[in-house]
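Appendix B. Raw example, untouched.
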Amino acid sequence: MKLIASLRLALAYAGVILTLAACTSMPADFASADAAAKRGDHAAAISQWKTLADYGYPEAQLKLGQAYAKGNGVEADPKAALAYFEAAAAKKSPAAYVELAQLYEKGKGVEKSTARAEEYYLKAAALKFPRGFMGLGKLYEREKDYDQAMKYYKAAADMGVAAAEGRIAKLEQKR
């Protein structure tokens, strides 16, 4: 009986060690996937990102979503992009929230919905993500709600987004 308990404990420790080894190597794999993409080896990048995405790595899910949205290294597939962005957003990736907002704004792979776009931009902004604030500013500016647009552009400008300053100047001329 003690032998069986000892074997179970040893197997449990081995599983923990293997899991930790896999987790600690993920960032290096992500870096090599990014490097592959930068040198134009999209097949290698996609392959590595898929492996990492299967492990639940949100940055890899985001990169795959972007690849499928733009057709970089894969055939453009808005539904696949949506699935990967949603997976990354489930892990509170602010960049994934912005990507989802843009899909809903344009109606790519989803029914066009300004309300859903706003919802996702707000989630990104709640995480202090500058692109979330800029997205909200642009959305409200298109809706001609200049006060709200100004509020979000100013928040982005306060975060150092240079483009927000230009948008603020244009809005001040409209008011």
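End of appendix B.
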